[in-house]
Task: structure prediction
Amino acid sequence: MDKHLNLPFGEAENAALFRLLVSTAADGILVIDESGTVRLYNEACERLFGYEPVEVLGRNISMLMPAPYREAHDGYLEHYRTTGERRIIGIGREVMAQRKDGSVFPIYLSVGEGMFDGTPLFVGIVHDISARQSASRKLQELQSE
Result:
């Protein structure tokens, strides 16, 4: 058991607690496999991106990215698989994302990596930073007057 967890429940209770955590999180939670296929897409992601889970699950994560990142993402995964060089895994960063309606918006993305049943998975936490960036721009405008 992970040293950061203390779940004295049975398997069914732990699974229910996991579902509660994922479904009530304020930020988007995504899980992809090493080929970029979306395996988990929570309710916060629905609000952020506008897609229903059935539209995203089983598809490539690049559908949530604007060009040119969409075209380059599989190459990033391949680069990591072959070199082990971390460019975003374990390191949060601001990136652009794309909603179902085509609008592009800034997010803070943090990505972790783990193994599940012998399969490498990547967990992304997505936070919309549109309001923060807008407030920052307004403050800069006021300060430059």
The chain is about 40% helix and 25% strand. The mean pLDDT is 89.
